[in-house]
From TrEMBL:
<dbReference type="InterPro" id="IPR015424">
    <property type="entry name" value="PyrdxlP-dep_Trfase"/>
</dbReference>
<dbReference type="Pfam" id="PF00266">
    <property type="entry name" value="Aminotran_5"/>
</dbReference>
<protein>
    <recommendedName>
        <fullName>Aminotransferase class V domain-containing protein</fullName>
    </recommendedName>
</protein>
<dbReference type="InterPro" id="IPR015422">
    <property type="entry name" value="PyrdxlP-dep_Trfase_small"/>
</dbReference>
<feature type="domain" description="Aminotransferase class V">
    <location>
        <begin position="23"/>
        <end position="416"/>
    </location>
</feature>
<dbReference type="InterPro" id="IPR000192">
    <property type="entry name" value="Aminotrans_V_dom"/>
</dbReference>
<dbReference type="InterPro" id="IPR015421">
    <property type="entry name" value="PyrdxlP-dep_Trfase_major"/>
</dbReference>
């Protein structure tokens, strides 16, 4: 099946913020918001802003709208049922909610494996382990053999995960894509391998929780094909408003989690048990515009086709950027992450400048800030442990320069970014 190409101009036209020449290149921090998301959000607040679940007509309308928002999130996750979908204020909050709800179903002495990626999918597990006497183990990103000359060319690899799994492993928490390295983790393959290893070593019960925040703007999430137990992403990074979506497999809802809600609410078999209080209803309803947007992007009208076109276009942004940065190796530029373009990578590109002509990441970003019409950023982006694991050491406060592009960025914008990099590295 051939992939329809993305009409970038019409994709951009859906975002009012992209009507001027500003270059948004900090999208892994937060994407621009669809005009249709803002319209639905406003419409909810102005016309259906009442409490849900009553029999009067406006409440019936608002209840229906919120249900449509849940269905939109189900579509984005490709979950089997809306019962498996909950919302929360942020991904950090929904991850903490899972950890709280799981507290009664872990045993002292069991083990949780986390990565050094964004702390959202590590912090709640470290705190749960401290509360309940579990051990934390780290699945660290390690150097790609194909990049022997760059110790910062690292990624999460299955062969380093498998030896960490023992009969005591209870939970494995990892990212579907790194918000610094840009590399995609093959979730389906990893979950399959985890289950096989768990069976081999005789694990009591193992579950997986996948942070899809840096993945969701670039690739189709498919919780059913992946066979994960928990997954979450932030809608404000997928062209929507500031709210997050949580997937919980029905089996885990039934057997692993205690409700976080009031004792008299009948939510025991739905993900609402992980949703204490109502999320912003207008935000939930506004999420309906996100799958509609993806479905409008290609003639096939499916989310799958949209992401295939997005992935293809994003490679045209990634390729020149990586090629340029690699050409500056002699100047001390080191890509932090996979050095090679390809579909296992998204255009989130991080680098440092080392050696005799070392440059602070903040000094490089300053050149961009001074240009005035472009947004990029430096820092550890909350993947503090990942930065800490890099050798030779990198100063946490300065960390890496990150340029993070998405499908609405253009090849011309990448050319401008390269011009500024040339100036910064002169
Ligand atoms: C990979 C990843 N996980 C989690 C988060 C946190 O998301 P939220 O701000 O919704 O808590 C971020 C935000 O940058 C992220 O990039």
């Amino acid at each position: 099946m051939s992939t329809a190409s993305l009409d970038v101009a019409s994709a951009r036209a859906a975002f009012p913020a992209l009507s001027d020449s500003y270059i948004y290149a900090d999208n892994a921090g937060g994407s621009q918001c669809l005009g249709s998301v803002a319209s639905r959000l406003t419409d909810y607040l102005l016309h259906t802003n009442v409490q849900l679940g009553a029999d009067y007509s406006v409440s019936v309308a608002s209840t229906k709208r919120v249900a449509e928002g849940v269905e939109a999130a189900r579509k984005l996750l490709n979950a089997a049922s809306v019962e498996e979908v909950a919302f929360g204020g942020s991904s950090s909050l929904v991850a903490e909610n899972i950890a709280r709800a799981l507290e009664g179903d872990v045993l002292e002495g069991e083990e949780i494996i986390v990565t050094g990626e964004h702390e959202t999918n590590a912090g709640p597990w470290k705190k749960l382990a401290a509360r309940r006497g579990l051990t934390i183990k780290f699945w660290h990103a390690t150097q790609y053999p194909e990049s022997p000359n760059n110790t910062y060319a690292v990624g999460l690899r299955l062969e380093t995960l498998l030896p960490l799994i023992t009969a005591k492993t209870r939970l494995i928490a990892f990212t579907a894509c790194s918000n610094i390295l840009g590399s995609i983790v093959p979730v389906q393959e990893i979950v399959k391998a985890i289950k096989a290893k768990a069976k081999e070593v005789g694990v009591r019960k193992v579950e997986t929780v996948v942070d899809c925040v840096a993945y969701a703007p670039h690739r189709r999430i498919d919780v059913q094909a992946w066979d994960v137990d928990y997954a979450f992403f932030s809608v404000y990074k997928v062209y929507g408003a500031h709210i997050s979506v949580l997937y919980t497999k029905l089996d885990s809802l039934k057997t692993s989690l205690s409700p976080l809600t009031h004792h008299f609410l009948p939510y025991d078999l739905t993900s609402l048990k992980l949703q204490p209080g109502g999320p912003g209803y207008e935000l939930v309803y506004s999420t309906t515009a996100v799958p509609d947007y993806f479905q409008s992007l290609t003639p096939a009208g499916t989310i799958e086709a949209a992401f295939a076109a997005i992935a293809q276009h994003e490679q045209t942004l990634l390729q020149p950027l990586l090629t340029y940065l690699k050409s500056k190796e002699g100047r001390g530029v080191r890509i932090v992450g996979d050095e090679n373009a390809g579909l296992s990578r998204v255009p989130t590109v991080s680098f440092v400048v080392v050696g005799p002509q070392r440059l602070d990441s903040r000094a490089i970003v300053k050149i961009f800030d001074q240009a005035g019409n472009i947004g990029i950023r430096y820092g550890h982006f909350y993947a503090w442990t990942l930065i800490d694991s890099l050798q030779p050491k990198i100063d946490h406060d300065d960390s890496v320069v990150r340029i993070s592009l998405v499908h609405y960025n253009t090849v011309q914008e990448v050319e401008k970014i390269i011009e500024l990099l040339e100036k910064a590295l002169a």
